Description:
The chain has strands at residues 2-6, 9-14, 20-26, 29-30, 47-50, 56-58, 61-64, 67-70, 80-82, 92-96, 100-109, 112-123, 126-135, 141-143, 146-149, 151-152, 158-162, 165-169, 175-180, 183-187, 195-199, 204-208, 213-220, 225-229, 236-242, 261-263, 268-277. It contains no helices and 27 strands.
Amino acid sequence: MLNLQAGGWHASLLPAQGAAFASLEHDGRPILQPLEGRDPNATQAGAFWMLPWTNRLDGGLFPWAGECYSFPITHPSEGNALHGLGRTLPWKVEENGPASAVLSQRLSQPPFDYLARLEVSLGEGGLTLALRLEQQGETPCPMGFGWHPWFARPPGCAVRFSATHKLRRDARKLPVGAEPSSGIDGPEETWLGADDHFAGWGGEAVLKRPDLTLIMRASGDWARNFQFFAPQAHPVLCLEPVSHVPDAINRPALAPLGAMRTLARGEALSGRLTLGLG
């Protein structure tokens, strides 16, 4: 367990389990639904990292450079591979202080060959995350990344964020088109049960709870696409900054709304996020 604390904030991460967040609190109030010792890859709690792709991959297939790579189906009922490969792999703690840490992850699994560097810090202003995903291989490759937090959702929450489009999806939750959308601005009865991808995100999202208001601000490759998931059966809410639309590698028609970036050796995706109180 990696524990960080500053300014009334406390975070616990699990470097050996995908650098998942086990908890995030402010003055003893849970910001993320606490993991409480459960598996971060099988529990709607904590937060995990998505790389080198985010959301769904149709049939687990990734066609690139004349080859079609196959990855394990993680959701058999949908026939999709979800959220990349990095969430199940360990991260190395490069630096660790009372309020900040730097971690890294190296993966070489065709067609992917990357080095990820994650910076996590706490302060009076809240949580800051910075992630860099660098191509290490000789052959250029498309990549993507994101953060998947399970925010605690007590009754009486409201959400606000702006966008330009919302993706339409089929029964397997794969995108089939897009429609204009201004985003979401309203109480939970207007969005509970949603599982939608938004493009043209404004880079800011506000979660207003009865006891506090959280403001998420993202920049870089995290500031354009956004996944919103509000399951009815569990008191959680996912506000996910991501770098591309779901199944982007198999959906070239949706590329203008958020394609994966093809990185040559030494090139990288980078994103920065702050999460603080309003």
